[in-house]
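We emphasize that the prediction below concerns an isolated chain of 381 residues; any contacts that depend on oligomerization or on bound cofactors are therefore not represented. The input was used exactly as deposited, without trimming of termini.
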Amino acid sequence: MLVAVEIARVYYIMPFPGSQQQNSIKLAYFLHNYINLFRLIGIAGIVYLTYSLFPVSNRLGKWLILVAIAFWLVVIYMFNFKMQADKMFYEPRTKKLSPVSENKILPQQLVIGVTINNQSKAYPIEIIGYHHQVRDSVGGVPVMVTYCTVCRTGRVFSPLVNGEPETFRLVGMDHFNAMFEDSRTKSWWRQANGEAIAGPLKGSQLSEIPSEQMTLAAWVARHPNTTILQPDSEFNDSYEKLANYDEGKSNSKLTGTDSVSWQEKSWVVGIKPNNTPRAYDWIELSQARLINDAFGRVFTLLALEPDSASFHVWLRPDSLSFALKDGVIIDEQTSSRWDWNGTCTEGVLKGNRLISVQSYQEFWHSWRTFNPSTTRYLAPN
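Result of the prediction step, given as a token string:
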């Protein structure tokens, strides 16, 4: 029993074979909270059985019990100090954000960008992908920048719970998505949508802060006064393991990319306007470069920049459709020109601006799991 509960407590919240396909969070949370009770019962049972079943002269029996206890202690060490999430992925020891003039991050690297109160900051995915979360403030507002490499999900949340600042630790996974535990109530929070899925605050929701994913070069072009999170030299070896992650060239089964559409590890762009989730195949977007879509009463425009990595989603008027001509976005009704900020820069609609939609690049398995009502955009024949 002692060995089984130690293993099960970690098995159900880490990516072991079969563990993440089960709806086992309730059981995992129970084991997590009552592990010490199981330990006391197990130790009491061992002590009682040792002295009741084995006479004092039976040294072999007692040695067997001691060997079994030693094995249990090894299991405790491995599953509590080696295999737990926050013992494998540490938060930055030194957090340094540098201006563009002092930056060491390559321009083609992907970043999660945040702008609040006219202050902009960029957080490279290959850095926060290891740490899973970075706490900071932007424009005087506290932020929690998160990334899960197994789901390819970047989210920025307000770390306020019931109006009070909270700290979180990485506790494990739920359906391959990073999961955090708050320090006060010990509730578990899902990274993909900021929802508390176990504990006293179950059903609560962290407030999401708008963010954008694009290359650093594209972000700097829009926000030249941005600061950029720099690598913490203590974790250089860990960052190196994610060196090809941006491009989808990871060799890991958990973080690798499928090369065809709509597979488990295929990339999609996900949006949820009016709480209506919609997914777009990344390969289709890469080929089309620009997509006009309409679903329900929602009319959207997706565009991929020339760097083939920075993408945008806007709401468009139902009276306008768009096309790319010589790398320039134009509307087909007035031939006005629009830039990559969604602003009309030339033509009869000059000065008009499209409304940006919060969008995410994500693995299909993740978007489908946490948005079960999603629909898929399928290109016309």
